[in-house]
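Fold these two proteins, one after the other.
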Amino acid sequence: MNVGWIGTGRMGLAMAARLARAGVELTAWNRTRAKAEPLLAEGASVAGEIADLRGQDVVFTMVSASQDLEEVLRALLDGAERVPRVVVDCSTVSLEASARMRELCADRGVDFLAAPVSGNAKVVEAGGLSLVVSGPREAYDRVSHLLEIIGRAVTYAGEGDRARLVKIAHNLMLGVVTQCLAEITVLAEKGGVPRHAFLEFLNNSVMGSAFTRYKTPAFVNLDYTPTFTPVLLRKDFDLGLAAARELGVPMPVAALTAQLVQAGIGTGRVEEDFAILLDLQAAASGLVLEPENVAVDDGLAR
């Protein structure tokens, strides 16, 4: 099966590399070609333009926003004599945008799968990515072996765009849990408990999780190298709260967290990881944080 890949940012590159390393015949395109060229070392090819991917059996997309997704799919499909059998979109976009792209693909005889993911580039490289997929079951069965190369867990959520709602709900929890983790960590430290000790206890308790363990190095050593920025998290809160309004679901905790994320963006710290919520909580609590410079386990060891 020939596979095309559109979008090789941090996540897209790591995901595409897993396919290439597994021996999948892969051709990738990115707006900035240099960002796709690391795949050459993995045995993949790099396309000069999106139209070069029209002959592939399957094309994956991993882009930043709804507008980007529509732009690349139109470049792939508009006026094409040959089209892929399946498009698999792993981006986080709105339900409305996903539905439009599904219709665009259907008009050209292409099956469209929504396949958003949970994780970041480090999680991908460690083989820990999770995917949730919705769309035609036959198309899912056709490409499931590729999805299983990309991630350790793949969940089929049904027809249509149900996977989008799953991912949006997931990212609401991502923000809420991180804000909660920031609050309780600052509380413990202001009471004299070192962050690494508090988080070690938490991670080994029933309240610990793969996520709290993964965020522990950032919290302990104040390393905010971006895995997911506050701006991207704000986008997902906008999508989630819009879905909640449409479905008539009150979400007071999520709404408050969205305001705290916006407060972080308002400080200008938009290129760092969203774990800066810890700094904002400390500042609001009259606490000045310092890196503890302690080696801690992020839980991603292979």
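Now the second one:
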Amino acid sequence: MAYLPQLFDPRSTILLAGVMGIMMALVLFFMRRSYPSSIRGLSEWSKAPLVAFVSTLLFAARDFLPDFATIVIANMVLLQAGIIYYAGSQQFLLGRSDTRGWTAANLLLGVLMFWFGIVKPDFETRLAIVTITVTLLFFFHAMLYVRHKVPVYGMRLMIGLLLAQSLVAGLRFVSVVMGMAGSNLMEATWIQSLYITMYSFSVLFLSIAVVLMATDRVHTEFEYLATRDPLTGVLNRRALLDACLAEFAASHGTLGRPAALLMVDLDHFKSINDRFGHQMGDAVLREAVSRMQHVIGTKGVLGRYGGEEFVVLLPHTTMAEAMAIAARLKESIDEPLAANSPLAPVGSFAVSIGVATSDGVKDVDEVLAQADEALYRAKALGRGRVIATA
């Protein structure tokens, strides 16, 4: 079996991997403290390199500490580090983690390591068991990201690293099957060197991928918050106007694509605030938004224009279609509140709606002005009604 020059020392490489793991664990720890709690998985990702570091110390102490520590405990701790990484990815992608199956596999691994490491020592069998287990863990970990299908560079890097680690572990397993296992962990054969080196680099680059993914998630959340009304969660005025501008620009580029705007205002909202307080008023706004979104669905975009006034953007919508949607929207909001609802003291609330379309109009402000004028007429006629622009 080919051996590498003495320049490559498996024991030193294992320790170097552990040191890199400690450094990345510190980076992730401080990230976890400074990033919002909505970024899940950072806690697990900061613990995993620390657990991996313990395993590197145990592996590097082979021939110096008892075999139970450097074989049984070391392999279990190493696999547990991989499981914790996996749990972090589950938290990040799914908001929850379930690694009970892998924990059971780790306990079984411990039993097998004890049998083939202490009772009937067999390095070849131990290596085959560990490498096939690691191959499967990293492969399933990679598939978790593949199924998520988000084209983010950090995730693509993570998938590549996990598949590469799975491939190298799989090659090491194949080498065992082909009789190239060697006699011990510290042999500087090319395949053993590749296996250990890949592990060392994966500790570093997996953490880099984590940093990239978490940073991208933070940017995404900040962008989302920058476009949302903090009370109701719908688009704020600036984002709403941007959406209207984009839709009107598209409609002018293609014939027969009018867009409609509904200007919606809660009737007598000030009296609700005066009688029941602003907290109840805020709850009414959220309830009204919920009902409007239920009616609009994917057919349009809802935004808060100001105070108790909302605008609904309806792409590809004629005046007749817009009037029908506005009627359903008003009907939904008019429904009495349930007797067991926290809003029950309010009884009910209503809206007035002004409707205008971009048909023949090129300017968003002009259509908004037309919808606002129609809304004003709806209120002047007694409120609680839908009026189209003249």
